[in-house]
Design brief:
Strand order of the largest sheet: 3-4-5
Number of helices: 9
Number of strands: 5
Strand content: 5-15%
Radius of gyration: 18 Å
Distance between the termini: 26 Å
Low-confidence stretches: 222-227, 229-235
Structural class: mainly alpha
Shape: globular
C-alpha cells in the first residue's frame, strides 16, 4: 500500500494470505463470539477482505462501478451463509450495532473510500482504532474540507448516507458529530459558526490503485449521476 492508500490489486491476485483469511471467514461462526467488540471487528474485517477479493478477482477494471454486483451480489461466504457487501454494511453493521464510527472503517477500494487500515481491526483496541480512523478521514481534505468564505462545510457522501445514524449518536445534530472528530482548527471554527451550510462532495468510484494512472482531480460538490450505490453482478 502506498502512502496515499493506493493498492496494487493485480499483485493481490496471488496473495495467499488473503485467500486463507477468506477461507477462515467462510468457516467462522459469528454467533459464538463472546463480546460486541469482537463481533464488530470481525464484520468490519470481513467486509474489507471481501472488497479486496472482489476487486482483485475482476481486474483489470478502472472503477468499482465496472464490477457488476460489487455491492449487492450475494457471493460472500460467512459461516455457511452468503452475504453481499451491502448486507454487511447496512443490515449487520448498520442495524445490529449502534456504532456510527464503524461506517468510516468500511473500505470499498475507491478514491473516495475511507482508507484501508494496514492491519485488521482488533477487539482489544477497536474503539481507539475507530476514533483514529474517523479523525484521519475527516482530516483528509480530498474527502472533507471547510470553506469559511462561503460558510460551507463540504463532507464526503459517506456522511450523507448515514446522516440519520450519525445524528442519533450526537443528539440529533450531524454537525455535533463532525465537531467531535474534526481537526482542531475545523472543530474550533464550527463551534463559532453553528449555522454553517453542509454540502456533500460527489463520490468517486475510481479505484484507488497503483495499477492505473490517476490524474489528480479536486473534489467537487456537483452531483453526478453515479454514486457510491451505483454498482451492481459479478462478472
Amino acid at each position: 500500500m502506498s502512502p496515499t492508500g493506493a493498492i496494487s490489486f493485480t499483485r493481490l491476485e496471488g496473495d495467499t494470505e488473503l485467500t486463507d483469511y477468506l477461507e477462515q471467514i467462510a468457516q467462522a461462526k459469528p454467533e459464538v463470539f463472546l463480546s460486541r467488540w469482537q463481533l464488530l471487528a470481525f464484520w468490519i474485517n470481513a467486509h474489507n477482505a471481501f472488497a479486496l477479493d472482489l476487486i482483485r478477482s475482476n481486474m483489470p477494471v478502472h472503477s468499482i462501478s465496472d464490477i457488476g454486483g460489487f455491492r449487492y451480489a450475494h457471493v460472500l461466504m460467512v459461516g455457511g451463509t452468503l452475504y453481499s457487501l451491502d448486507d454487511i454494511e447496512h443490515v449487520i453493521i448498520g442495524k445490529q450495532f449502534r456504532e456510527p464510527r464503524a461506517f468510516f472503517a468500511l473500505y470499498d477500494g475507491s478514491r473516495s473510500s475511507p482508507a484501508l487500515k494496514h492491519t485488521p481491526y482488533s477487539e482489544a483496541h477497536l474503539s481507539e482504532e475507530l476514533d483514529k480512523q474517523l479523525k484521519t478521514f475527516l482530516a483528509d481534505s480530498s474527502k472533507n474540507y471547510l470553506d469559511p468564505h462561503s460558510n460551507t462545510l463540504y463532507l464526503s457522501e459517506v456522511f450523507n448516507d448515514y446522516a440519520a445514524n450519525l445524528e442519533d449518536a450526537a443528539g440529533g445534530s450531524l454537525l455535533e458529530f463532525v465537531k467531535a472528530f474534526a481537526p482542531p482548527k475545523m472543530a474550533e471554527w464550527l463551534g463559532r459558526h453553528p449555522n454553517v451550510r453542509i454540502s456533500y462532495l460527489s463520490y468517486d468510484n475510481t479505484l484507488n490503485s497503483s495499477d492505473i494512472e490517476q490524474p489528480h482531480e479536486p473534489p467537487t460538490h456537483e452531483r453526478k449521476q453515479t454514486s457510491r450505490r451505483s454498482s451492481g453482478g459479478i462478472r
